[in-house]
Amino acid sequence: MAVASSAGRLHPARAAARATRRGCAAVIAAVIAVVLAAALLLAAAPARAEPKPSVKQLKKELATLQKDSDKLITEYYNSRIAHQQAEKSERAAKEKLAAAQEVYDHHSTELRAMAVARYIGGEPGAMALLAGDEDPSTVLGRMALTQHLIDQQEAMLRGYAEVRDARGRAEEEAAARTEELERTLGDLEERKKKAEKQIEKIKDRIDLLYTAPGIRRPDGTWVPQLPQGSDNITPRMALVKKLIQERFEVPFGIGCYREIQDGGEHPLGRACDFMLSRGGAFPSAAEQARGDQIAAWAIKNAKRLGIMYVIYKQRIWHVRTGAWRTMTDRGGTTANHYDHPHISVY
């Protein structure tokens, strides 16, 4: 069957199919164009950032946190009282047990001695007492003495049983008081951790109430400031110093402005050293941990407070990179910043 006419034209059926395919291709192309345009628009649209909490919102959150914190602290205080009472009860129970053990040991020794004496000497029977030419009154007296010894032995055995039972009760009580003490200690630690966590939340929210003074450029840097005040540091550095002093307490001093032109921010009033020890001594483990906390706090709040970089433990963290980088060895504890975190602001 011929598909095309003698003039070379397509058969009407094939021409219709080709037209349909062209129409579908056009529709698909249009859909793809729309999808691509939408994707480009979505890519170009800036991501919607979470709105920063206002001062009013922060203060409201702080009030709630403070209320919850007071409740946790009260619970922690009550746990401390319960723990102290449990400690007192355990001490009393152990003292009681020690006294019972002493009486028990004394009675045990006496009974062992009596048992040995009876084993060695034997126990005279009635017929043995009546034998011989002894006066009957002497024999009766000896019998009475024997009965007395038997009564004494029985009394001592009864007393031993009472002492033994008293010691057992004292052991049980001491064990119960020890278990109670361990339980209150666990409860105390749990409540302490909850209270500390809540206090840290409060501190974090308080931090958000402060922003660095001055003008911040679009690229994240800040317009420089002049040093001021008796300590010759900029307002930005003064704020960072104040917040660290309030939060961490730096007992070995804070050094900021220095006249020596060492190329850093100290002569410009834009840097402070938070000392963890004196005289170049290597800081204790507790003070090193304090330095870690100060450095972590500075990094966490760097963008908001205008902190440019942090140096600690022969490493430098810069706000541009957001990562620590190892520094060259400068030959000493202080020079390598092992005894203090250094914080510089813009």
From TrEMBL:
Entry keywords, A to Z: Coiled coil
Record bears the keyword Transmembrane: no
Domain ARB-07466-like C-terminal: 230-338
TM regions (residue ranges): none
Coiled-coil region: 55-103, 171-212
InterPro entries found in the cross-reference section: ARB_07466-like_C
Record protein name field: ARB-07466-like C-terminal domain-containing protein
